[in-house]
Amino acid sequence: MHGMVNRALQGFLTATYGPQVWAEVRSQAGLPFDDFEAMLRYDDRVTLQCFEAACQILMKPPNTVLEDLGTWLVTDPNLEPLRRLLRFAGPTFADFVHSLEEIGDRGRLAMPDLDMPDVTLDRIDPVTYRLRARWGLPGIAPVFLGCLRAMADDYGALALVRLAGIEDGAECVEIQLLDAAYAEGRQFSLGARLS
Amino acid sequence: MTGLPPAPDRVIALSTGVLDHLMPMHLWFDDAGRVVQTGPTLAKMLARGDLAGVPVADLIEIRRPARARTAADLVALAGQRLSLTLRSAPDLPLRGTIAVWPGQAGAILDISLGLSFAGAVAAFDLTLADFSPCDQTVELMYLYEANASTAALSRHLSERLEAARAAAETQALTDALSGLANRRAMDLEIERRLADLSEDFALLHIDLDLFKQVNDTMGHAAGDHVITHVGAVLRAETRASDMAARVGGDEFLLLLSGPVDRDGLARLGARLIARLEEPILFEGKPCLISASIGAVSSAGYPRRPDIDGLLADTDLALYTAKRTGRGRVVLHGDDTPPPRGRRASDPTARAP
Fold first, then answer.
1. In chain A, where are the structural domains located?
2. Which of A38, A149, A185, B126 could form a disulfide with A7 if both were Cys (CB 3.0 to 4.6 A apart)?
3. Contact yes or no for A190 and B150 at CB 8 A
4. What does the pLDDT average to over B239-250?
5. Other C-beta atoms lying within 10 Å of the C-beta of residue B172
6. Which CATH class is domain A71-179?
7. Which residues of B touch A187 (CB under 8 A)?
8. Predicted-complex ipTM score
Protein backbone atom coordinates (compact mmCIF):
# COMPACT_ATOMS: atom_id res chain seq x y z
CA MET A 1 0.00 0.00 0.00
CA HIS A 2 0.98 3.58 -0.61
CA GLY A 3 2.77 5.30 2.26
CA MET A 4 -0.19 7.67 2.57
CA VAL A 5 -2.44 4.76 3.54
CA ASN A 6 0.02 3.49 6.12
CA ARG A 7 0.67 6.97 7.33
CA ALA A 8 -3.09 7.43 7.80
CA LEU A 9 -3.23 4.33 9.98
CA GLN A 10 -0.28 5.52 12.05
CA GLY A 11 -1.66 9.06 12.27
CA PHE A 12 -5.09 7.82 13.33
CA LEU A 13 -3.69 5.57 16.07
CA THR A 14 -1.29 8.23 17.35
CA ALA A 15 -3.84 11.06 17.30
CA THR A 16 -6.64 9.00 18.83
CA TYR A 17 -4.86 6.70 21.28
CA GLY A 18 -1.47 8.32 21.80
CA PRO A 19 2.11 7.56 20.76
CA GLN A 20 2.38 4.75 23.31
CA VAL A 21 -0.27 2.70 21.49
CA TRP A 22 1.47 3.33 18.19
CA ALA A 23 4.76 2.16 19.77
CA GLU A 24 3.04 -1.05 20.92
CA VAL A 25 1.53 -1.62 17.49
CA ARG A 26 4.91 -1.08 15.88
CA SER A 27 6.58 -3.48 18.22
CA GLN A 28 3.91 -6.18 17.92
CA ALA A 29 3.87 -5.88 14.12
CA GLY A 30 7.69 -6.03 14.08
CA LEU A 31 7.98 -2.77 12.17
CA PRO A 32 11.71 -2.07 11.68
CA PHE A 33 11.28 1.73 11.73
CA ASP A 34 9.53 4.38 13.82
CA ASP A 35 7.39 6.11 11.23
CA PHE A 36 5.81 5.33 7.91
CA GLU A 37 6.94 7.68 5.20
CA ALA A 38 4.03 9.15 3.22
CA MET A 39 5.92 9.22 -0.08
CA LEU A 40 7.16 5.62 -0.08
CA ARG A 41 5.40 2.32 -0.77
CA TYR A 42 5.14 -0.61 1.63
CA ASP A 43 4.20 -4.23 1.21
CA ASP A 44 0.49 -4.89 1.89
CA ARG A 45 1.57 -7.42 4.52
CA VAL A 46 3.10 -4.62 6.60
CA THR A 47 -0.16 -2.66 6.50
CA LEU A 48 -2.19 -5.69 7.52
CA GLN A 49 0.20 -6.63 10.34
CA CYS A 50 -0.03 -3.14 11.79
CA PHE A 51 -3.79 -3.10 11.47
CA GLU A 52 -4.22 -6.51 13.09
CA ALA A 53 -1.88 -5.51 15.91
CA ALA A 54 -3.91 -2.33 16.45
CA CYS A 55 -7.21 -4.25 16.71
CA GLN A 56 -5.66 -6.64 19.23
CA ILE A 57 -4.08 -3.96 21.36
CA LEU A 58 -7.21 -1.78 21.34
CA MET A 59 -9.42 -4.86 21.77
CA LYS A 60 -11.82 -3.53 19.15
CA PRO A 61 -13.43 -5.25 16.17
CA PRO A 62 -11.76 -4.39 12.84
CA ASN A 63 -14.85 -2.62 11.46
CA THR A 64 -15.00 -0.27 14.45
CA VAL A 65 -11.34 0.70 14.04
CA LEU A 66 -11.84 1.25 10.30
CA GLU A 67 -14.97 3.34 10.79
CA ASP A 68 -13.20 5.50 13.37
CA LEU A 69 -10.31 5.88 10.95
CA GLY A 70 -12.75 7.08 8.26
CA THR A 71 -14.23 9.63 10.67
CA TRP A 72 -10.79 10.81 11.71
CA LEU A 73 -9.77 11.40 8.08
CA VAL A 74 -12.51 14.03 7.77
CA THR A 75 -12.62 15.53 11.25
CA ASP A 76 -9.03 15.77 12.51
CA PRO A 77 -8.01 19.45 12.47
CA ASN A 78 -4.54 18.51 11.23
CA LEU A 79 -6.12 16.94 8.15
CA GLU A 80 -7.95 20.10 7.15
CA PRO A 81 -6.24 20.01 3.71
CA LEU A 82 -7.81 16.59 3.07
CA ARG A 83 -11.27 17.74 4.21
CA ARG A 84 -10.94 20.68 1.86
CA LEU A 85 -10.01 18.41 -1.05
CA LEU A 86 -13.11 16.32 -0.32
CA ARG A 87 -15.33 19.40 -0.20
CA PHE A 88 -14.21 20.36 -3.71
CA ALA A 89 -16.46 17.53 -4.91
CA GLY A 90 -19.57 19.73 -4.70
CA PRO A 91 -21.49 22.44 -2.91
CA THR A 92 -24.00 20.09 -1.20
CA PHE A 93 -23.79 16.66 0.42
CA ALA A 94 -25.98 15.31 -2.38
CA ASP A 95 -23.45 16.62 -4.92
CA PHE A 96 -20.72 15.02 -2.83
CA VAL A 97 -22.49 11.65 -2.90
CA HIS A 98 -23.16 11.95 -6.63
CA SER A 99 -19.46 12.57 -7.21
CA LEU A 100 -18.31 9.49 -5.27
CA GLU A 101 -17.67 7.57 -8.49
CA GLU A 102 -15.03 10.18 -9.27
CA ILE A 103 -13.22 9.69 -5.98
CA GLY A 104 -10.59 7.40 -7.50
CA ASP A 105 -9.78 9.89 -10.24
CA ARG A 106 -9.76 12.75 -7.74
CA GLY A 107 -7.34 10.90 -5.50
CA ARG A 108 -5.04 10.08 -8.40
CA LEU A 109 -5.20 13.69 -9.57
CA ALA A 110 -3.63 14.61 -6.24
CA MET A 111 -1.21 11.69 -6.15
CA PRO A 112 -0.96 9.60 -9.30
CA ASP A 113 0.22 6.39 -7.63
CA LEU A 114 -2.21 6.47 -4.71
CA ASP A 115 -4.21 3.27 -4.14
CA MET A 116 -7.76 4.57 -4.44
CA PRO A 117 -10.88 2.39 -4.32
CA ASP A 118 -12.94 1.80 -7.46
CA VAL A 119 -16.42 3.03 -6.68
CA THR A 120 -19.74 2.61 -8.44
CA LEU A 121 -22.92 4.27 -7.24
CA ASP A 122 -26.46 3.04 -7.93
CA ARG A 123 -29.63 4.94 -7.18
CA ILE A 124 -32.08 2.69 -5.36
CA ASP A 125 -34.83 5.30 -4.96
CA PRO A 126 -34.86 9.11 -5.11
CA VAL A 127 -33.07 9.44 -1.78
CA THR A 128 -31.21 6.14 -1.44
CA TYR A 129 -27.90 5.16 -3.03
CA ARG A 130 -25.82 2.03 -2.88
CA LEU A 131 -22.08 2.49 -3.07
CA ARG A 132 -19.97 -0.49 -4.18
CA ALA A 133 -16.25 -0.20 -3.50
CA ARG A 134 -13.34 -2.41 -4.50
CA TRP A 135 -9.90 -1.94 -3.00
CA GLY A 136 -6.63 -3.81 -2.59
CA LEU A 137 -7.30 -4.65 1.06
CA PRO A 138 -10.51 -5.71 2.81
CA GLY A 139 -12.34 -3.15 4.92
CA ILE A 140 -12.89 -0.20 2.63
CA ALA A 141 -16.66 -0.09 3.34
CA PRO A 142 -16.35 0.72 7.06
CA VAL A 143 -13.79 3.41 6.18
CA PHE A 144 -16.38 4.90 3.78
CA LEU A 145 -19.01 4.56 6.50
CA GLY A 146 -17.04 6.73 8.93
CA CYS A 147 -15.97 9.10 6.20
CA LEU A 148 -19.48 9.59 4.76
CA ARG A 149 -21.11 10.15 8.15
CA ALA A 150 -18.48 12.75 8.95
CA MET A 151 -18.93 14.42 5.55
CA ALA A 152 -22.71 14.60 6.08
CA ASP A 153 -22.01 16.39 9.36
CA ASP A 154 -19.51 18.59 7.60
CA TYR A 155 -22.15 19.68 5.09
CA GLY A 156 -24.82 19.96 7.80
CA ALA A 157 -26.92 17.34 6.04
CA LEU A 158 -28.93 14.58 7.65
CA ALA A 159 -28.15 11.21 6.11
CA LEU A 160 -28.36 7.58 7.16
CA VAL A 161 -25.31 5.57 6.20
CA ARG A 162 -24.95 1.86 6.89
CA LEU A 163 -22.91 -1.14 5.79
CA ALA A 164 -24.80 -3.17 3.18
CA GLY A 165 -22.84 -6.38 2.80
CA ILE A 166 -20.59 -7.65 0.03
CA GLU A 167 -21.70 -8.18 -3.58
CA ASP A 168 -19.43 -9.92 -6.10
CA GLY A 169 -16.37 -8.95 -4.09
CA ALA A 170 -17.45 -5.31 -3.79
CA GLU A 171 -18.07 -3.96 -0.31
CA CYS A 172 -21.34 -2.03 -0.13
CA VAL A 173 -22.56 0.99 1.78
CA GLU A 174 -26.10 2.35 1.65
CA ILE A 175 -26.66 6.09 1.86
CA GLN A 176 -30.04 7.70 2.52
CA LEU A 177 -30.24 11.45 2.03
CA LEU A 178 -32.90 12.74 4.42
CA ASP A 179 -32.40 16.47 4.84
CA ALA A 180 -29.84 18.53 2.95
CA ALA A 181 -30.05 21.48 5.37
CA TYR A 182 -30.49 19.70 8.67
CA ALA A 183 -27.87 21.63 10.59
CA GLU A 184 -25.21 24.27 10.20
CA GLY A 185 -22.35 22.63 8.38
CA ARG A 186 -18.68 23.47 8.63
CA GLN A 187 -17.45 26.31 6.51
CA PHE A 188 -15.82 25.73 3.17
CA SER A 189 -14.35 28.73 1.40
CA LEU A 190 -12.91 27.91 -2.00
CA GLY A 191 -10.07 30.41 -1.68
CA ALA A 192 -9.43 29.93 2.04
CA ARG A 193 -5.95 28.56 1.58
CA LEU A 194 -4.77 31.86 0.12
CA SER A 195 -6.44 34.37 2.34
CA MET B 1 -12.48 29.29 -34.41
CA THR B 2 -11.74 32.95 -35.12
CA GLY B 3 -14.37 35.50 -36.00
CA LEU B 4 -17.12 33.07 -37.00
CA PRO B 5 -20.34 35.04 -37.27
CA PRO B 6 -23.45 33.18 -36.12
CA ALA B 7 -25.25 31.64 -39.07
CA PRO B 8 -28.31 33.88 -39.63
CA ASP B 9 -30.54 30.94 -40.44
CA ARG B 10 -29.86 29.27 -37.13
CA VAL B 11 -30.76 32.06 -34.72
CA ILE B 12 -32.15 30.82 -31.44
CA ALA B 13 -33.50 32.63 -28.43
CA LEU B 14 -31.64 32.38 -25.11
CA SER B 15 -33.28 33.60 -21.94
CA THR B 16 -31.05 35.62 -19.62
CA GLY B 17 -31.46 32.79 -17.10
CA VAL B 18 -29.91 30.36 -19.57
CA LEU B 19 -27.05 32.77 -20.21
CA ASP B 20 -26.45 33.09 -16.46
CA HIS B 21 -26.44 29.33 -16.06
CA LEU B 22 -24.14 28.52 -18.96
CA MET B 23 -21.86 31.52 -18.62
CA PRO B 24 -21.93 32.92 -15.09
CA MET B 25 -19.07 35.24 -15.99
CA HIS B 26 -20.55 36.78 -19.17
CA LEU B 27 -21.13 40.41 -19.97
CA TRP B 28 -23.66 41.40 -22.62
CA PHE B 29 -23.12 44.87 -24.01
CA ASP B 30 -25.12 46.91 -26.53
CA ASP B 31 -24.08 48.70 -29.70
CA ALA B 32 -23.04 51.69 -27.66
CA GLY B 33 -20.65 49.56 -25.57
CA ARG B 34 -22.84 49.73 -22.46
CA VAL B 35 -23.73 46.85 -20.18
CA VAL B 36 -27.08 45.16 -20.83
CA GLN B 37 -26.56 42.44 -18.24
CA THR B 38 -23.84 40.41 -16.56
CA GLY B 39 -23.76 36.87 -15.27
CA PRO B 40 -24.08 36.44 -11.48
CA THR B 41 -20.45 35.51 -10.88
CA LEU B 42 -19.09 38.44 -12.88
CA ALA B 43 -21.54 40.76 -11.09
CA LYS B 44 -20.12 39.48 -7.81
CA MET B 45 -16.59 40.10 -9.04
CA LEU B 46 -17.39 43.63 -10.23
CA ALA B 47 -19.13 44.42 -6.92
CA ARG B 48 -20.82 47.58 -8.21
CA GLY B 49 -24.54 47.17 -7.68
CA ASP B 50 -26.66 47.88 -10.76
CA LEU B 51 -24.47 47.59 -13.82
CA ALA B 52 -27.03 48.21 -16.54
CA GLY B 53 -25.95 51.09 -18.78
CA VAL B 54 -22.41 51.32 -17.42
CA PRO B 55 -19.80 51.58 -20.21
CA VAL B 56 -17.84 48.33 -20.55
CA ALA B 57 -14.62 50.35 -20.65
CA ASP B 58 -15.34 51.61 -17.12
CA LEU B 59 -15.42 48.05 -15.83
CA ILE B 60 -12.96 46.14 -17.93
CA GLU B 61 -9.62 46.84 -19.52
CA ILE B 62 -8.86 44.76 -22.59
CA ARG B 63 -5.07 44.43 -22.79
CA ARG B 64 -4.35 41.91 -25.55
CA PRO B 65 -4.32 41.55 -28.44
CA ALA B 66 -5.30 45.26 -28.61
CA ARG B 67 -6.78 47.90 -26.34
CA ALA B 68 -10.49 48.49 -26.80
CA ARG B 69 -12.53 51.41 -25.54
CA THR B 70 -15.48 51.74 -27.88
CA ALA B 71 -18.10 49.20 -28.84
CA ALA B 72 -16.57 49.08 -32.31
CA ASP B 73 -13.14 48.29 -30.81
CA LEU B 74 -14.68 45.47 -28.82
CA VAL B 75 -16.63 44.02 -31.73
CA ALA B 76 -13.50 44.11 -33.85
CA LEU B 77 -11.91 41.66 -31.39
CA ALA B 78 -14.74 39.13 -31.72
CA GLY B 79 -13.58 35.52 -31.79
CA GLN B 80 -10.10 36.23 -30.50
CA ARG B 81 -8.48 35.11 -27.28
CA LEU B 82 -8.43 38.18 -25.04
CA SER B 83 -6.32 39.10 -22.09
CA LEU B 84 -8.13 41.53 -19.80
CA THR B 85 -8.42 42.78 -16.25
CA LEU B 86 -11.24 44.19 -14.20
CA ARG B 87 -10.71 47.83 -13.26
CA SER B 88 -11.38 46.75 -9.68
CA ALA B 89 -8.60 44.12 -9.75
CA PRO B 90 -5.88 45.24 -12.17
CA ASP B 91 -3.39 42.68 -10.81
CA LEU B 92 -5.40 39.64 -11.85
CA PRO B 93 -5.12 38.98 -15.58
CA LEU B 94 -8.23 37.19 -16.83
CA ARG B 95 -9.13 35.55 -20.11
CA GLY B 96 -12.06 36.32 -22.35
CA THR B 97 -13.64 36.12 -25.74
CA ILE B 98 -16.29 38.17 -27.57
CA ALA B 99 -19.11 36.93 -29.80
CA VAL B 100 -21.42 39.29 -31.68
CA TRP B 101 -25.19 38.81 -31.44
CA PRO B 102 -27.12 38.81 -34.67
CA GLY B 103 -29.12 41.91 -35.61
CA GLN B 104 -28.44 44.98 -33.53
CA ALA B 105 -28.39 43.17 -30.17
CA GLY B 106 -24.78 44.03 -29.33
CA ALA B 107 -22.26 41.38 -28.30
CA ILE B 108 -21.33 39.14 -25.44
CA LEU B 109 -18.01 38.98 -23.63
CA ASP B 110 -17.42 35.74 -21.75
CA ILE B 111 -14.70 35.69 -19.12
CA SER B 112 -12.73 32.98 -17.33
CA LEU B 113 -10.20 33.26 -14.54
CA GLY B 114 -7.32 31.94 -16.64
CA LEU B 115 -4.12 31.42 -14.69
CA SER B 116 -5.23 33.89 -12.02
CA PHE B 117 -7.76 31.34 -10.79
CA ALA B 118 -6.30 30.89 -7.31
CA GLY B 119 -5.83 34.59 -6.65
CA ALA B 120 -9.17 35.47 -8.22
CA VAL B 121 -11.12 32.90 -6.21
CA ALA B 122 -9.65 34.35 -3.03
CA ALA B 123 -9.93 38.01 -4.06
CA PHE B 124 -13.57 37.71 -5.16
CA ASP B 125 -14.53 35.16 -2.49
CA LEU B 126 -15.95 32.79 -5.09
CA THR B 127 -17.67 29.54 -4.15
CA LEU B 128 -18.32 26.23 -5.89
CA ALA B 129 -21.76 27.53 -6.92
CA ASP B 130 -20.17 30.48 -8.74
CA PHE B 131 -18.79 28.21 -11.43
CA SER B 132 -20.56 26.39 -14.21
CA PRO B 133 -20.31 22.63 -13.63
CA CYS B 134 -18.47 22.57 -16.97
CA ASP B 135 -15.84 25.04 -15.79
CA GLN B 136 -12.67 23.23 -14.72
CA THR B 137 -11.59 26.05 -12.41
CA VAL B 138 -12.76 24.12 -9.36
CA GLU B 139 -10.70 21.12 -10.44
CA LEU B 140 -7.73 23.44 -10.95
CA MET B 141 -8.21 24.75 -7.42
CA TYR B 142 -8.38 21.20 -6.16
CA LEU B 143 -5.20 20.32 -8.00
CA TYR B 144 -3.52 23.49 -6.80
CA GLU B 145 -4.19 22.62 -3.16
CA ALA B 146 -3.38 18.95 -3.62
CA ASN B 147 -0.08 19.93 -5.21
CA ALA B 148 0.81 22.20 -2.33
CA SER B 149 0.13 19.38 0.13
CA THR B 150 2.09 16.73 -1.74
CA ALA B 151 4.95 19.15 -2.36
CA ALA B 152 5.11 19.72 1.39
CA LEU B 153 5.25 15.95 1.94
CA SER B 154 8.08 15.59 -0.57
CA ARG B 155 9.93 18.46 1.03
CA HIS B 156 9.60 16.86 4.47
CA LEU B 157 10.92 13.59 3.07
CA SER B 158 13.92 15.36 1.51
CA GLU B 159 14.63 17.20 4.76
CA ARG B 160 14.48 14.00 6.76
CA LEU B 161 16.77 12.22 4.30
CA GLU B 162 19.21 15.11 4.42
CA ALA B 163 19.23 15.06 8.22
CA ALA B 164 19.78 11.29 8.17
CA ARG B 165 22.64 11.70 5.71
CA ALA B 166 24.27 14.37 7.86
CA ALA B 167 23.86 12.20 10.94
CA ALA B 168 25.35 9.21 9.12
CA GLU B 169 28.27 11.35 8.03
CA THR B 170 29.10 12.50 11.57
CA GLN B 171 28.77 8.92 12.77
CA ALA B 172 30.92 7.59 9.96
CA LEU B 173 34.22 6.06 10.98
CA THR B 174 35.91 5.87 7.61
CA ASP B 175 37.84 8.30 5.48
CA ALA B 176 36.47 7.84 1.99
CA LEU B 177 39.60 8.77 0.00
CA SER B 178 42.21 6.67 1.79
CA GLY B 179 39.84 3.90 2.86
CA LEU B 180 41.39 4.16 6.34
CA ALA B 181 39.66 5.03 9.60
CA ASN B 182 38.96 8.72 10.22
CA ARG B 183 39.88 10.95 13.14
CA ARG B 184 36.71 10.10 15.03
CA ALA B 185 37.32 6.35 14.78
CA MET B 186 40.96 6.78 15.79
CA ASP B 187 40.11 8.91 18.82
CA LEU B 188 37.62 6.28 19.98
CA GLU B 189 40.22 3.55 19.53
CA ILE B 190 42.95 5.50 21.37
CA GLU B 191 40.57 6.12 24.28
CA ARG B 192 39.77 2.43 24.37
CA ARG B 193 43.45 1.43 24.32
CA LEU B 194 44.40 3.96 26.99
CA ALA B 195 41.72 2.54 29.26
CA ASP B 196 42.92 -1.04 28.71
CA LEU B 197 45.92 -1.27 31.03
CA SER B 198 46.49 -4.94 30.24
CA GLU B 199 48.18 -4.20 26.92
CA ASP B 200 50.69 -1.68 25.69
CA PHE B 201 50.50 -0.04 22.29
CA ALA B 202 52.39 2.40 20.12
CA LEU B 203 51.14 5.41 18.19
CA LEU B 204 52.80 6.82 15.09
CA HIS B 205 51.98 10.24 13.73
CA ILE B 206 52.88 10.27 10.03
CA ASP B 207 53.05 13.50 8.07
CA LEU B 208 53.71 13.37 4.34
CA ASP B 209 56.61 15.44 3.04
CA LEU B 210 56.44 17.06 -0.41
CA PHE B 211 52.71 16.32 -0.68
CA LYS B 212 51.92 19.99 -1.20
CA GLN B 213 54.34 20.07 -4.14
CA VAL B 214 52.57 17.11 -5.76
CA ASN B 215 49.24 18.89 -5.38
CA ASP B 216 50.63 22.17 -6.67
CA THR B 217 52.56 20.87 -9.66
CA MET B 218 50.52 17.83 -10.73
CA GLY B 219 47.05 18.78 -9.58
CA HIS B 220 44.57 17.63 -6.98
CA ALA B 221 43.76 14.43 -8.85
CA ALA B 222 47.41 13.41 -8.43
CA GLY B 223 47.22 14.40 -4.75
CA ASP B 224 44.12 12.24 -4.30
CA HIS B 225 45.88 9.37 -6.02
CA VAL B 226 48.83 9.70 -3.63
CA ILE B 227 46.50 9.66 -0.59
CA THR B 228 44.79 6.52 -1.89
CA HIS B 229 48.20 4.92 -2.40
CA VAL B 230 49.37 5.87 1.11
CA GLY B 231 46.17 4.32 2.46
CA ALA B 232 47.02 1.07 0.67
CA VAL B 233 50.62 1.10 1.99
CA LEU B 234 49.48 1.66 5.59
CA ARG B 235 46.88 -1.09 5.30
CA ALA B 236 49.50 -3.47 3.93
CA GLU B 237 51.95 -2.62 6.73
CA THR B 238 49.50 -3.16 9.58
CA ARG B 239 47.98 -6.20 11.21
CA ALA B 240 44.28 -6.74 11.80
CA SER B 241 44.69 -5.69 15.43
CA ASP B 242 46.32 -2.37 14.43
CA MET B 243 44.52 0.68 13.16
CA ALA B 244 45.53 3.26 10.56
CA ALA B 245 43.66 6.52 10.19
CA ARG B 246 43.81 9.61 8.03
CA VAL B 247 43.42 12.53 10.41
CA GLY B 248 44.21 15.50 8.19
CA GLY B 249 44.91 16.39 4.55
CA ASP B 250 48.29 14.62 4.57
CA GLU B 251 48.46 13.39 8.17
CA PHE B 252 47.98 9.85 9.37
CA LEU B 253 47.96 8.04 12.70
CA LEU B 254 49.00 4.44 13.07
CA LEU B 255 48.10 2.55 16.21
CA LEU B 256 50.03 -0.67 16.84
CA SER B 257 48.84 -3.27 19.33
CA GLY B 258 51.09 -4.96 21.80
CA PRO B 259 54.45 -4.02 23.22
CA VAL B 260 56.82 -2.51 20.67
CA ASP B 261 60.32 -1.66 21.78
CA ARG B 262 62.08 1.49 20.66
CA ASP B 263 64.26 -0.28 18.09
CA GLY B 264 61.22 -2.04 16.65
CA LEU B 265 59.38 1.27 16.35
CA ALA B 266 62.35 2.91 14.66
CA ARG B 267 62.69 0.00 12.23
CA LEU B 268 58.97 0.02 11.37
CA GLY B 269 59.04 3.80 10.88
CA ALA B 270 62.06 3.57 8.58
CA ARG B 271 60.39 0.79 6.56
CA LEU B 272 57.21 2.84 6.15
CA ILE B 273 59.19 5.87 4.99
CA ALA B 274 61.10 3.74 2.51
CA ARG B 275 57.85 2.36 1.10
CA LEU B 276 56.32 5.82 0.85
CA GLU B 277 59.40 7.18 -0.92
CA GLU B 278 58.97 4.75 -3.79
CA PRO B 279 57.72 6.71 -6.81
CA ILE B 280 53.91 6.64 -7.14
CA LEU B 281 52.83 6.63 -10.78
CA PHE B 282 50.00 8.93 -11.72
CA GLU B 283 49.03 9.01 -15.41
CA GLY B 284 52.46 7.64 -16.22
CA LYS B 285 54.33 10.31 -14.22
CA PRO B 286 56.04 9.62 -10.90
CA CYS B 287 54.88 11.46 -7.80
CA LEU B 288 57.64 11.69 -5.23
CA ILE B 289 56.85 12.09 -1.58
CA SER B 290 58.40 11.17 1.73
CA ALA B 291 57.16 11.14 5.29
CA SER B 292 58.16 12.28 8.74
CA ILE B 293 57.09 10.24 11.72
CA GLY B 294 56.75 10.98 15.41
CA ALA B 295 56.11 7.92 17.59
CA VAL B 296 55.21 7.15 21.20
CA SER B 297 54.84 3.92 23.11
CA SER B 298 52.44 3.59 26.01
CA ALA B 299 55.16 1.58 27.75
CA GLY B 300 57.24 4.75 27.97
CA TYR B 301 54.92 6.33 30.55
CA PRO B 302 54.99 5.52 34.27
CA ARG B 303 51.31 6.53 34.30
CA ARG B 304 49.22 6.58 31.17
CA PRO B 305 48.49 10.08 29.87
CA ASP B 306 45.09 11.13 28.59
CA ILE B 307 44.47 11.22 24.86
CA ASP B 308 45.40 14.90 24.54
CA GLY B 309 48.69 14.31 26.32
CA LEU B 310 49.46 11.30 24.17
CA LEU B 311 48.70 13.14 20.94
CA ALA B 312 50.70 16.18 22.09
CA ASP B 313 53.71 13.90 22.62
CA THR B 314 53.41 12.37 19.14
CA ASP B 315 53.06 15.90 17.73
CA LEU B 316 56.22 16.97 19.52
CA ALA B 317 58.14 13.98 18.22
CA LEU B 318 56.82 14.61 14.73
CA TYR B 319 57.78 18.25 14.99
CA THR B 320 61.31 17.29 15.85
CA ALA B 321 61.41 14.87 12.91
CA LYS B 322 60.24 17.63 10.54
CA ARG B 323 62.60 20.18 11.98
CA THR B 324 65.64 17.95 11.59
CA GLY B 325 64.99 17.21 7.93
CA ARG B 326 62.33 15.15 6.14
CA GLY B 327 62.11 11.39 5.98
CA ARG B 328 62.98 10.78 9.64
CA VAL B 329 61.48 8.87 12.56
CA VAL B 330 61.69 10.46 16.01
CA LEU B 331 60.59 8.63 19.13
CA HIS B 332 59.07 10.54 21.99
CA GLY B 333 61.80 11.03 24.57
CA ASP B 334 64.47 11.51 21.89
CA ASP B 335 63.07 14.85 20.90
CA THR B 336 63.82 18.27 22.27
CA PRO B 337 61.30 21.05 22.79
CA PRO B 338 60.77 23.15 19.67
CA PRO B 339 61.97 26.74 19.57
CA ARG B 340 59.30 29.25 20.49
CA GLY B 341 56.96 30.48 17.77
CA ARG B 342 57.36 27.52 15.43
CA ARG B 343 54.86 24.75 14.96
CA ALA B 344 55.00 21.42 13.21
CA SER B 345 52.50 22.64 10.67
CA ASP B 346 54.59 25.72 9.92
CA PRO B 347 55.46 25.37 6.23
CA THR B 348 58.92 26.83 6.84
CA ALA B 349 59.64 23.85 9.05
CA ARG B 350 59.09 21.49 6.15
CA ALA B 351 61.64 20.09 3.86
CA PRO B 352 62.86 22.41 1.10
1. 3-60, 71-179
2. A38
3. no
4. 93
5. 12
6. alpha beta
7. none
8. 0.85
